[in-house]
Design a protein that fits this description.
The protein is an alpha/beta fold. The protein contains eleven helices and 14 strands. Helix content is about 35%, strand content about 20%.
Length: about 350
């Protein structure tokens, strides 16, 4: 039997082409799209507006799930939730839900594992399994959207900061955003998405030239090449002068603020020298720095900066006029914080 394709891998135009090929009117595609992305139906039997024969044909041809929830963990404060999903090919990913006062944010994965090998990141320590399809990326969002709807809530923000480097899976990541942004479907605004990259310069430039409206964040973590290369190997290929040049092109072209993420590691990158170098590096750039005390991972011995060091780093940046905030750490007790996602479960 032919393997069933994941239905979320289809665009709206794909659905129209499909029903037309089957000799059906285009409005059947509208009904399917509305069921998937507005009603959030996840089983062919729910599509009661469709003829039984068409429902059966869809069921025969398509899967409505490539992700099987295997384990769910809840943080002690009840504000963060993490789900381990098993994929059909034995790969696995993790997705995080974070509840804030006014926001319901999902941190989703674009790859099973990651090839970037950042020393302090648990996902990087895993290595790369494979890229996710656009449908597998979308399915993470819809899984939580269905559960939030049951309590009268909805997803407000999606950040591509889970497992994987989004620009290493550029096409599928962008397709997922376009599908979730579709005005007749899930209709999540473009600026409700944030893509975080470790600094793949070609991806940043392509993102800039294609005029995408989603937010861009860059994981910087060091302000000189020697230190950054020791932490983030891709810096050897795309050093800081190239990376910051691409960031300036992004801001000049889009007139939008860029975010730099900085995981503070005690006695490594939390020194006044690094703060001053960072301020010099981004001087005149429309940007914001997110300061994140390092989250612990199993195979990295570095420690989070002390409260005093974090405050000193922030004060130094502010002295140079660089907007910055200290990010609230979330879900550390369930390994759901930045850099902590990895597959430890059997």
């Amino acid at each position: 039997m032919e393997e069933r394709k994941l239905i979320y891998d289809l665009s709206y135009d794909d659905l129209v082409d499909m029903v037309n090929t089957w000799g059906l009117p285009s409005y059947r595609a509208d009904q399917i799209w509305h069921g998937l992305y507005v009603k959030l139906w996840s089983d062919p039997g729910q599509f009661t507006s469709l003829p039984l024969e068409l429902r059966q044909r869809i069921d025969d041809k398509f899967s409505f799930s490539h992700l099987q929830p295997s384990l769910t963990l809840n943080s002690s404060d009840g504000e963060t939730n993490k789900t381990l999903f098993r994929l059909a090919d034995s790969q696995a990913i993790e997705t995080v839900y974070m509840r804030y006062k006014k926001r319901r944010t999902l941190c989703i994965s674009t790859q099973a594992g990651c090839a970037m090998d950042c020393v302090f990141c648990a996902t990087g320590q895993m290595g790369l399994g494979r890229n996710l399809s656009s449908g597998e990326i979308i399915e993470q969002v819809l899984y939580y959207a269905q559960r939030l709807r049951a309590s009268g809530e909805r997803v407000t923000n999606v950040v591509f900061m889970g497992m994987g480097e989004p620009f290493h899976n550029y096409d599928e990541t962008i397709l997922a955003i376009k599908r979730l942004n579709h005005h007749d479907g899930f209709n999540l605004g473009s600026r409700r998405f944030t893509i975080s990259t470790v600094g793949l310069v070609p991806g940043i430039r392509r993102f800039t030239n294609e005029n995408h409206q989603s937010n861009l964040a860059v994981s910087l973590h060091a302000a000189d090449d020697d230190l950054r290369s020791s932490m983030i190997p891709i810096n050897k290929k795309y050093p800081l002068n190239e990376l910051i040049s691409a960031c300036r092109e992004y801001v000049d072209h889009t007139h939008r603020r860029i975010t730099f993420e900085w995981a503070l590691i005690q006695d490594i990158n939390d020194t006044p020298y690094q703060a001053i170098r960072l301020a010099q590096l981004v001087k005149g750039l429309l940007c914001h720095v997110n300061i994140i005390p390092l989250n612990p991972t199993q195979n990295y011995r570095g420690r989070a900066s002390s409260r005093e060091s974090v405050q000193r780093f922030q004060n130094e940046l502010e002295r140079y006029g660089i907007p910055c905030t200290i990010r609230l750490r979330r879900g550390i007790d369930i390994q759901a914080g930045c850099g902590q996602l990895a597959i430890h479960y059997k």
